[in-house]
Amino acid sequence: MSSVPDAAVGDELKQAKEMEDAEKYSFMSTLSKAPKKQIQFADDMQEFTKFPTKTGRRSLSRSISQSSTDSYSSAASYTDSSDDEVSPREKQQTNSKGSSNFCVKNIKQAEFGRREIEIAEQDMSALISLRKRAQGEKPLAGAKIVGCTHITAQTAVLIESLCALGAQCRWSACNIYSTQNEVAAALAEAGVAVFAWKGESEDDFWWCIDRCVNVDGWQANMILDDGGDLTHWVYKKYPNIFKKIRGIVEESVTGVHRLYQLSKAGKLCVPAMNVNDSVTKQKFDNLYCCRESILDGLKRTTDVMFGGKQVVVCGYGEVGKGCCAALKALGAIVYITEIDPICALQACMDGFRVVKLSEVIRQVDVVITCTGNKNVVTREHLDRMKNSCIVCNMGHSNTEIDVASLRTPELTWERVRSQVDHVIWPDGKRVVLLAEGRLLNLSCSTVPTFVLSITATTQALALIELYNAPEGRYKQDVYLLPKKMDEYVASLHLPSFDAHLTELTDDQAKYLGLNKNGPFKPNYYR
Question: How many cofactors are bound and how (predicted)?
C-alpha cells in the first residue's frame, strides 16, 4: 500500500483551510452587503410610492389589502380584485335563465355562494322546519316583499324561505360593507331580484334601494327592514306606495326608533311590527351574537391581544352586555359608559366600572360604541386618544362615531387592510378606525348562524302574521310580537340541543293562572 509524504499532507491541509476561509469570507461579505441591498430596495419602494397612480395611493393600498384578506375572510367576500374598478352598475350581467333583473358584483360567483347558503342551512334547522311545515299552505302567496337587510348566507336562507312560502322578493343591503358578494350572486342566479355588493358608495346604496322599490308592473305590499332606511325612502319618495303597504317588520333599534317617531307624529299609515324588542331578538341575537362576533371582528382586523388591554364600551344594553362578557373573559379591563341608571347599576353589579368617556379616553386601548345614538365619540374624544387606539362601532348605524370630523386636510387617512384605516394626526399619532365607523361584526367578520336563525324565524313569522291578519286587528301603530309567537320560535330551536321541556300539571297551571301551553310570560315582558 503506497503512502503520501508528510509534507504533501501538510500542504493539502493548508490548501483546504485557505479554501474554507475564503468561502467563509465570501459568505460573511454577502451578509454584510444584504442590509444595504434591502435598504436600497426600500428606498426604491419609497420612490415608487411618491408617484401614485391616477386612483391614488389609498386605492392602491386598498386593492392590495382586499386581495390579501378576501382569500380567507367569508365576510370580506371572495371577490376577484381585478374586477374592483368596474362598478356593477356599469356591467351587463344575466343569470343562467337569461334574467338581468339584479345587480351584483359578479354573477359567476353564484356556485360558490350556493355552497355558503347550504352550509348556513345546516345550522338554521328551525327556519327550515318552518319552511317545510308551511310550504304547502303558502301563507305568503300574493305577498310582494321589498327587503333591506344585511345580505349574508344566513339572510339568504330567510329570503329563500319567504319565496318558498309564496312571496315575491326584491332585496337590497342595509350596510355598504356587509354584503357577501358570492351569496348575492347565488340569490340572483336563483331568480331573486337582488341589488347589492360589498363596498357600495352612498349613491350606490340609495340607487339599490330605489331599484327594489321603483319597478314597472310590480308594487310592494310588505316591507322587511333593518335600520329604517328602506322605510324612510318609500315614505319620502313614494308616498302612494307607502299608503298601500300592509305591514312593516323592523329588526333594529335605529329603525324601530324611526317608526315610533312616525307613529307619534301621526304619519305612520300602516301597521308595523317591532321585532327588535321581541324576546327572541333582544335576549339572543343582540346578546349572544355580539358576545361572539365582537372578538371575531376585532381579531380579524387588528390581531389585537385582549389580555390586560383597557377597553371602554359605550352602552350596556344587550349588545353592550354581550361585548363586555366576551372582553372580560379574555382578561381585558372593561369600563362602561351609560345614560340609564338601571343599565349602569347592572354594569356595576356585573363587576364593571361605570365612567364618563372623557375620564378614561386618554388611557384606553379600545373604544367600542353600541348605543344606537349619535356623536357618542366626538372629534374632541378622538383628539385626546392615545396612539394606536382602536375605535369601532357595534351599533347598527354609522352615527355613533363622528367620522365626518376626521375628513379634514390636517389628518391623513391610510388604508392598511380591508376595513381598517389609520387616521394620522400631524404629530404622528394614529387612531385605528374599523369599517369607517359602521357595524363591526357584519362589516369585518361573520356572525353565528344559529343565533341568526332565531331572528330570521321571528321575522318570517312577523311577516306571516301581518300579511294574514284580519282587517282591524292591527291599526296604524307599532306592535310587539305576541309572546306566544316568541315562545314558538324558541321551541323550534330547542331540539338542536336535545332539550326537553317540563310540562305543567293541570293543578300547577291553575295555581299560576296560566294556560298549560303558554304563553308563559305577559306581553310586557322583555
Answer: Binds 1 NAD(+) per subunit.
pLDDT of residue 17: 57
319 is in an annotated binding site: yes
For residues 47, 53, 55, 56, the Cα torsion angle rounded to the nearest 10 degrees is: 20
Q: Measure the CA angle with vertex 295, ends 290 and 296; round to 5°.
A: 95
320 in a known ligand binding site: yes
400 among the known binding-site residues?
no
Q: What is the pLDDT of residue 60?
A: 32
| Dihedral sign of CA atoms 479, 244, 176, 52 in order | negative
487 is in an annotated binding site: no
Sort strands 310-314 and 366-369 into parallel, antiparallel or unpaired: parallel
Residue 97 known to bind ligand: no
Cα–Cα distance, 4 to 513 (Å, whole number): 113
Question: Per the annotation, does 317 bind a ligand?
Answer: yes
- In the DSSP assignment, the letter for residue 377 is B
Asked if the bond preceding 519 is cis, omega within 30° of 0, the reply is: yes
Q: Specify the pairing of strand 420-424 against strand 333-337.
A: unpaired
Q: Is the pTM of this model over 0.90?
A: no
116 annotated to a ligand binding site: no
- Confirm whether residue 228 is marked as ligand binding: no
Task: Kindly list the distances between the CA atom of residue 329 and the CA atoms of 186, 297, 306, 396, in Å, as whole numbers in the listed order.
Answer: 38, 16, 9, 24
pLDDT at position 14 = 57
Amino acid 10: pLDDT: 56
Contacts of 481 (CB under 8 A, 6+ apart): 273, 274, 275, 278, 280, 458, 461, 462, 465
Q: How far apart are the C-alpha atoms of 179 and 124, rounded to whole Å?
A: 19
Report DSSP letters for 253-315, one per residue.
HHHHHHHHHHHHTT---S-EEE-TTSHHIIIIIIIIIHHHHHHHHHHHHH----TT-EEEEE-
Q: Assign 333 to helix, strand or coil.
A: strand
Q: Tell whether residue 428 is among the known ligand binding residues.
A: no
CA-wise closest residue to 193 among 228, 142, 145, 236: 145
User: What's the confidence (pLDDT) of residue 20?
Assistant: 55
Work out whether strand 247-250 and strand 272-274 pair parallel, antiparallel, or are unpaired: parallel
